[in-house]
Design brief:
Blueprint: E1 12-16, H1 20-37, E2 44-47, H2 53-68, E3 77-84, H3 96-110, E4 117-123, H4 131-139, E5 141-144, H5 149-166, H6 173-183, H7 187-200, H8 209-215, H9 220-233, H10 236-252, H11 258-280, H12 290-299, H13 318-328, H14 333-352, H15 357-369
C-alpha cells in the first residue's frame, strides 16, 4: 500500500498543513478507515473552526467530554476534531488560557487509556514551538502536509498519479505534468480533473495527451501560455489569431492589459534563450525525450542557477520548459536576442506612442517570426 494511504498505527493522529485539500482528504480517509475497522457506532465529529477564545474553550470542553464518554452501544469510538484553527499563532491561538489548556490536555493524554478510543485532529496551521505540539509528538502520529513552492509540482504530479491508480487507470509522467500545466497546481482542482478524465476514457486503461486537451479545464495561467506557444511555434497565422483573441479578452476584462501580454511574450523569449544556453553548456540535450529532459534538468547544480524564480529554469514547470525546448530549436540565438530588442521597443511604443496597441503588437510579432536575412 502507498505510504499516503496507510492508516496511522497510533490511536492519536494530527494531520495539518498549509495545503487544505491534502489535509481534508487525508483526514477523511483516516476517519473512514478507523470507523470501518471498529465495531462501534457512537463516533463523533467536532467542528474545530472557532471565531474567538470563548468558542475555543467550548470546543476543548466538547473534545474532553467526547473522549471521556463511553460508547452508548459499546465497542470502539472514533473522535474527529475537524478543521481546527486555534493551534497556530493567531490571536485566538495566542490566548494564554487557550495555550495553557491545550498544553495541559496534551500532557494528560500521555497517561490516558486509549484502549477502544481513537482521536483524529485535522488543522490548518500548527505552531510547532508550542507545548501542545511538542507533547503530542511524543505519542501521536503527526502528518505535516505543508510543502514549499519548489516541491509543489512534484507533489501535484504524485497526487494525480495516485488518484488515477485508485481509479484503476494509468497516466504517464509526462501526461500528468501536461495536465498540471493545463489545470494549474491547485490540488483540489487536479483531483476533480483526474476523476473527470477517468470517467471520460471509459473502458480504456490509460489517459492520453489528447484526452487532456479534449476534456480538461484550462486555467487562466494555461490560457496565458497560448500566445507564447504560438510565438514559439513560429506560426504567424496562428500567432495573429491568438493575439486577436487575447486583445478581445483585454477589452472585456479590465484586469488584463496589452502590457501584460507583452510581458508574457518577453518571458517566453527569455525562457528560450535560457534553453539555448543550457544546450550550449551541454546541461541538456536538444533531442531528449521528456523523462530524460526532466532528469537532466534536476541534475543541474543549484549553485549554477539564479535564485530568482523568473530567471531559474529549475523553478519553472518542467513540462512547460520541455515544450519551450522544441520552440527554442526553431530560433537561432541571434534571432532570440534580436527578439528581446524588438519587444523592448514594443514596450516603449505601448507606453508612449499613440499608435493602436494591436498594431504595435502585430508589427513586433511579425518582426520576430520572420526569418532573419
Amino acid at each position: 500500500m502507498h505510504s499516503e494511504l496507510k492508516p496511522p498505527s497510533e490511536p492519536v493522529c494530527l494531520v495539518f498543513g498549509d495545503e487544505d485539500f491534502l489535509v481534508r482528504d487525508r483526514a477523511k480517509r483516516i476517519y473512514e478507515y478507523w470507523c470501518s475497522a471498529t465495531d462501534g457506532m457512537d463516533h463523533e465529529v467536532i467542528d474545530g473552526a472557532v471565531r474567538n477564545s470563548e468558542e475555543a474553550q467550548e470546543t476543548i470542553s466538547k473534545l474532553n467530554e467526547a473522549l471521556q464518554t463511553l460508547p452508548f452501544f459499546g465497542g470502539d469510538k472514533v473522535v474527529w476534531l475537524r478543521g481546527v484553527n486555534f493551534l497556530g499563532d493567531d490571536r485566538t491561538a495566542s490566548n494564554v488560557k487557550i495555550k495553557e489548556r491545550l498544553a495541559d490536555m496534551a500532557k494528560a493524554w500521555e497517561a490516558f487509556d486509549w484502549k477502544g478510543v481513537k482521536l483524529l485532529i485535522s488543522a490548518t496551521k500548527v505552531d510547532k514551538r508550542k507545548s501542545f505540539f511538542k507533547a503530542l509528538k511524543k505519542f501521536a502520529s503527526v502528518e505535516d502536509k505543508s510543502f514549499s513552492e519548489k516541491e509543489r509540482g512534484g507533489r501535484a504530479s504524485m497526487l494525480v498519479r495516485q488518484r488515477f491508480s485508485e481509479l484503476g487507470k494509468k497516466i504517464s509522467q509526462h501526461v500528468a505534468d501536461e495536465l498540471i500545466l493545463f489545470v494549474g497546481a491547485n490540488l483540489q482542482q487536479l483531483y476533480t480533473e483526474s476523476d473527470k478524465l477517468a470517467s471520460y476514457i471509459g473502458d480504456r486503461n490509460e489517459v492520453t495527451r489528447q484526452d487532456v486537451h479534449e476534456i480538461s479545464t484550462r486555467s487562466k495561467q494555461s490560457k496565458a501560455f497560448a500566445l507564447g506557444d504560438a510565438l514559439g511555434e513560429r506560426n504567424l497565422p496562428k500567432l495573429l489569431r491568438v493575439l486577436d483573441e487575447e486583445l478581445w479578452e483585454v477589452k472585456l476584462d479590465t484586469k488584463k492589459s496589452p502590457i501584460a501580454l507583452l510581458y508574457g511574450l518577453i518571458s517566453k523569449v527569455r525562457t528560450m534563450i535560457f534553453l539555448r544556453e543550457m544546450i550550449r553548456l551541454k546541461w541538456i540535450s536538444p533531442s531528449s525525450g521528456y523523462p530524460q529532459f526532466k532528469s537532466q534538468l534536476e541534475a543541474i547544480d543549484d549553485d549554477c542557477l539564479p535564485s530568482d524564480k523568473k530567471f531559474n529554469p529549475k523553478l519553472m514547470h518542467p513540462y512547460m520548459l520541455f515544450n519551450a525546448l522544441g520552440h527554442a530549436k526553431r530560433y537561432s540565438e541571434i534571432e532570440l536576442i534580436r527578439a528581446m530588442g524588438v519587444l523592448l521597443n514594443c514596450n516603449r511604443q505601448l507606453v508612449s506612442s499613440s499608435t493602436e496597441n494591436a498594431l504595435v503588437l502585430q508589427q513586433a510579432l511579425m518582426q520576430i517570426v520572420s526569418k532573419s536575412d
